[in-house]
């Protein structure tokens, strides 16, 4: 997936080409990185704390400017003037991990209206977008509440709504499930699925390999040596690469591999992605009886 | 803010008692103000620069970035001394204006460097708790400690919120910029007091009763360092006074 | 803008310390009493100080195009009362002098007088006056911030003019010079600070 | 485990007896709750966000006072005067989730010295305790660094060190692994094991059922109906109870159950607790070949 797309392949929505970045006089955090976000794919970004995940996401969203290399939007280099940044920011929206870093207006609806107002849209259109974003995140009921009186899960949704109201083609989320309880995580994943159904491409940074296996089409593994990208099934089966990134194998992959190595399950096939799938898989000795999805 | 503070923590003189560095740095500042600017302040300036770049090993780039802040003010202020107002032609060049402006510039920049000798080597964490022993009321020191810690948290929060605002085009138009700024100010307020409340319950378990007692590292005032500093200060004072006549 | 380190002659530096001292000592007494009566207020006062510090670090979009920062003393005075602001402002100025090389230790007395004493008291006085005359909260807050900001810079000009009288026209001529450099360019910034303060207070009232 | 201990059983270190609590005039968050922390056991506290986990932990630490019912320390009711609170605080220490809610001082060592100084200990003893706590948390090297220059993981350790310096018999941690990457989580768990080895009883609130199964001896499940306590193996195998608390079965339990129900594994036995154990378990058809630990 690295490098220049072969002729005929549609350009990725947004891409980093040989990007290096470091903060102020500090050392490089990312060096010569190639990275692509392709339309319609669910992409999970994995790596240990300090591996540069957040930096990469900020580069995608135009919050940071590469020291060298370039960021491309639909195949063309991003220009960092006002018009160029506006184009990038209406395509890519980043939601940071801590919702409190993103909410600053008096009420949820006001906060969500911030982006559309800055786009210079007429008031009616702004209202429509706010309603739509609140509905998409299932927080219509708390639209007029002050943000600091909401629960953590609600604040998280409000922060995402603020980005969604910009109608980005790519939504980049930093650890969106962190701090949520399992039910909250499930609800959020369902919301993201609905957004994807509406045509938004979703990129998510996470530490949770099981979540990545279950949710993502593609996985990008950020290691000191660079980024390793591939389908979730491919990347998350590479013990060595995962170890290099400070991660373990997902449960499903580990168990499937153990069963296969003992001949208790046939080689190949998709690793089970949820505990239920794995239970069926283990009971029935392989993927045959476990239809994907 | 972060630059001087961060440098102070990794300074070569970090382990020295703040009094050591106060005698040297603030002593130099005092001399810069008291001695005749030429050659007194010039001597202070050279001595302070030598100390900062030499034994204290402050990187030159960092020092320059901190130093150009006061320098900007000094230059603006000194320029006004070049001009005189009133008299027959209302505005004109002031007699001796260049000399007075130069002297002011010299005094002010030398004094700034003296304080930087202290600031670049003494972290607030070593200084604040010791202010109680210097006679500052404990309640004020406690408030200053919380202000210091929380200022960093708030500055970080404000930086994050600014980035989030930029991502949603918060700096594209004048109206947007004002909306952003108002949001930042209000967020800082809400976050500060929310944090105070949470800190209150976070500290309760360790026996917080309104006083923030902490233990400072057991460092001693070094007789040798203070003596050496005083000797340097005396030498500069003597030299500055003695050379004043011949050099002017 | 704070008067830089070493800018004032020794006699002036000492005189301004003497002028500020009673206000700061009064503030310290009030603060100490407050903390004794309500131990939990240490954290709230620290939060207030941090808020004022961060507020004064925000970059104002200025009409003149130069980059400038609010003083925060008007809003601080309305929210936390002038005596407390005298102490918090002194702490803030000390931090700025040591951590940012902004202002100075030898000029601390002069800067405290303009920024932590006159500004807050003038702003607070105008706020009370405006409220007493029946002005809306937002109008009163705007006036407080505007007056606090502007009076701070007027005092700074006076301090500089006293220290550096014009060779021909003396104090008044110097006041004109420093006044036009600092205070006059400061009027648009005072308006900006007033607007910002209104925005902040409005948001705080809504939430 | 609820109710009054049978004669002969040693008293729990700290216990809630019929405790009800609500914030100010708000509704009750906890009602008639019985809860015990027994010496030497690793206890995981599970429940959805808003279920009252944090409130329960604050009650244990003396930060909150029950509206009715009582908190007992070694079998005797806690008195909320200065002496009583000091006794409680030297027994139970709570570490909150966000380390920035606990770190106030300008340097790490200063922050850690705060608690011991408040106990009125002589300076030398305080210094010894600070060194000991920094060493226990493996952050001796950053003792004189300013709090704001530390990484999140280091701040988390500094906050725990502040509690450890009080030499509590019970250390209560609210979501200690949240925000850490997998390596950071492993390191923290190893640190907690070392503390347990030194005789400290550890209570941990978490959302992670797999972590709870792996780490805890006992699990307390906080549901709207009250608290359900038992050994980790017992409680985490109860699908209904977990669902009531908004949780799923741990991977190991789910797979073991599936295999057992198909007759592919013998009934009974301990469920596998890590992916490796589970892989072995699944491959070998049961717990026989997977020695515990």
UniProtKB/TrEMBL annotation, chains A, D:
Limits of the ABC transporter domain: 14-249
Q: Name one Pfam family in it.
A: ABC_tran
Family annotation (InterPro entries): AAA+_ATPase, ABC_transporter-like_ATP-bd, ABC_transporter-like_CS, ABC_transpr_CbiO/EcfA_su, Co_trans_ATP-bd, ECF_ABC_transporter_ATP-bd, P-loop_NTPase
Kindly indicate whether the keyword RNA-binding belongs to this entry.
no
The entry's localization annotation reads: Cell membrane
Membrane topology field:
Peripheral membrane protein
Q: What is a GO molecular function of this protein?
A: ATP binding
Q: Which CDD domains does UniProt cross-reference here? A: ABC_cobalt_CbiO_domain1 (cd03225)
Keywords, sorted A to Z: ATP-binding, Cell membrane, Membrane, Nucleotide-binding, Translocase, Transport
Entry function:
Part of an ABC transporter complex. Responsible for energy coupling to the transport system.
| Family, similarity comment | Belongs to the ABC transporter superfamily.
For this entry, the protein name equals ABC transporter ATP-binding protein
Organism this protein belongs to:
Streptomyces chilikensis
UniProtKB/TrEMBL annotation, chain B:
CDD domains assigned: EcfT
Q: Which InterPro entries match?
A: ABC/ECF_trnsptr_transmembrane, Cobalt_transport_CbiQ, ECF_CbiQ
**Domain of life (superkingdom):** Bacteria
UniProt KW keywords: Cell membrane, Membrane, Transmembrane, Transmembrane helix
Give the membrane topology: Multi-pass membrane protein
Which sequence ranges are marked TM in the entry? 22-53, 65-83, 134-155, 221-243
* Statement: the UniProt record of this protein carries the keyword Transmembrane: yes
The subcellular localization recorded is: Cell membrane
- Primary site of residence: membrane
| Name of this chain's protein | Cobalt ECF transporter T component CbiQ
Q: Which gene encodes it?
A: cbiQ
